[in-house]
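Subject: for your reference before the review

Hello V.,

The reviewers asked for a structural picture of the protein, and I figured it would be easier to keep everything in one thread rather than splitting it across files. Below is the amino acid sequence we used in the manuscript, unchanged from the supplementary table.
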Amino acid sequence: MKNSAKSISRKNIFIIKNGIRENAVIEYEGGKPTLHLLLNDETRKSYKALDLYDCFGLLRADLKDIKFLCKGAKINVHTSGMSSHMSNRLIAYELTMGQANTELVHIFALEENNLTNDIQEQHDFCQRWSESVPV
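And here is what came back from the structure prediction:
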């Protein structure tokens, strides 16, 4: 394999697999919508989509038996066009029902509450949130 100067980012995350908390590694390359997951048992999986948020959604859908302890798996975290453009969707909004103010979060930051492996649940929450915010 040819050595290149590409900048690969590695992020250590926590997962729960078979009821046991473990470390895993997420790798991604700036500007490319490909995500790689490396598990402790040396399993390596790769996912490609329109952006990294969607890659993470594919990863979670594929590995339903694993709980990913990341903001990007939280039911009320969703991206927008602006966060997508600025960060390849590594940055997302943490939404609160009825509140227009949102918090920017990194999708691989640690989170342990209200997690889902179904990205559609996150899309549905975002829709309900947008209807709850006063105009």
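For the response letter, the relevant points are probably these. Residues 8-132 form one domain. The chain has a mean pLDDT of 90.

Happy to draft the paragraph if you're swamped.

O.
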